[in-house]
């Protein structure tokens, strides 16, 4: 699975934003699609200068904000199921 969604800088900016007054966004376009099938990029897609080669680096600064509770003990004292 590959990362998708906002990069670290965008996430931190949104987290700190004042959301009490909505802001109308202009001059932007974003889309995302998901599939259970394997996506096989063409050779052109992998070799074009338009490829964002540093995309994975944008995720490195993303901090963990989710700490799940441990799974409740199952009957017999085992954790998880």
Distance between the termini: 24 Å
Number of helices: 2
Instruction: Please give the largest β-sheet.
Output: none
The coarse overall form would be: extended
The helix/strand series, from N terminus to C terminus, equals HH
Number of strands: 0
Percentage of residues in helical conformation: 10-25%
Estimated share of beta-strand residues: under 5%
Query: Segments where pLDDT lies below 50 for 5+ residues?
Result: none
Mean pLDDT: 79
Structural category is mainly alpha
Rg (CA only) = 19 Å
Structural notes for this entry:
The protein is mainly alpha-helical. The mean pLDDT is 79.
Task: Write the topology of this structure.
Elements: H1 8-16, H2 43-47
Spell out the key features of this protein:
17% helix; mainly alpha; 81 residues
Task: State the gist of this model.
This protein has helices spanning 8-16, 43-47. With 81 residues, the chain is mainly α.
């Amino acid at each position: 699975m590959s990362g998708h969604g906002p990069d670290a800088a965008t996430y931190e900016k949104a987290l700190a934003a004042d959301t009490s007054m909505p802001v109308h966004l202009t001059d932007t376009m974003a889309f995302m699609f998901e599939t259970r099938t394997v996506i096989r990029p063409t050779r052109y897609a992998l070799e074009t200068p338009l490829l964002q080669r540093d995309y994975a680096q944008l995720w490195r600064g993303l901090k963990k904000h989710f700490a799940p509770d441990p799974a409740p003990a199952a009957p017999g004292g085992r954790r998880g199921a």
